[in-house]
Amino acid sequence: MIYIKISFMKILITSATPFEVAPLRQHLNEKFWPHSESLFQKEELEVSLLVTGIGMTLTALNLGSLFAKQRFDLAINAGIAGAYPASGLAIGEVVQVTSERFADLGVEEADGRFVDVHELGLVDANASPFTNGELVNPTMGFDFLPKSKWLDRQQSTRFSA
Predict the structure, then answer these.
(1) Considering the entire predicted model, what is its pTM?
(2) Which of 59, 79, 99 delimits the end of a domain?
(3) Which in 9, 69, 71, 155 has the greatest CB count within 10 A?
(4) Chosen domain end from 60, 79, 98
(5) Both 100 and 74 in a single domain?
């Protein structure tokens, strides 16, 4: 008996909340064969959806648990990713993150100003993996996507060309 190994491209799409991937889930249910509520297949393409929960801790916990059990060819984080109304981003717009700041890791001062862990002196802004308080994306291999730097709650969105 001869066995043929079928090679699938495995894609993981994550979001913090189910609302952020609801339209995608509907599309996958209509156009792909659903193996389960979160696993879909079409020919040699396998798409898994994972709702991680809101915030770094839940995302890290759920992704770490999944990556310990499964390998993926591509992982995409879909959702608002901290894009606030003043960011200039429209629903459905796709960007490639070139750098990120921990904009929710710090303290809010009495005057309402947010001070991050670098400004507080709790974490060196240039200690690995940071560069001037930012996590810089070293891959940035998708030249067809617009580049987007971190989105700041206090200021306008900072974009690089």
Answers:
(1) 0.69
(2) 79
(3) 9
(4) 79
(5) no
Q: How far apart are alpha carbons 118 and 140 in whole angstroms?
A: 25
Q: Which amino acid is at 37?
A: E
Residues 48, 14, single domain; the answer is yes
Q: How far apart are CA 161 and CA 156, in angstroms?
A: 15
Residue 130's alpha-carbon distances to 2, 119, 126, 137, in angstroms, are 52, 13, 5, 11
* DSSP single-letter state for residue 155: S
pLDDT tens-place string over residues 121-157 = 999 999 999 999 988 887 766 665 555 554 443 333 3
Q: How many domains does the chain have?
A: 2
Let me know if residue 3 belongs to a domain: no
Judge contact between 133 and 144, C-beta under 8 A: no
79 phi and psi angles, rounded to 5 deg: 140, -165
E strands within 5-155?
A: 9-15, 33-34, 39-42, 45-51, 74-77, 96-97, 99-100, 106-108, 114-116, 130-131, 134-136, 147-148
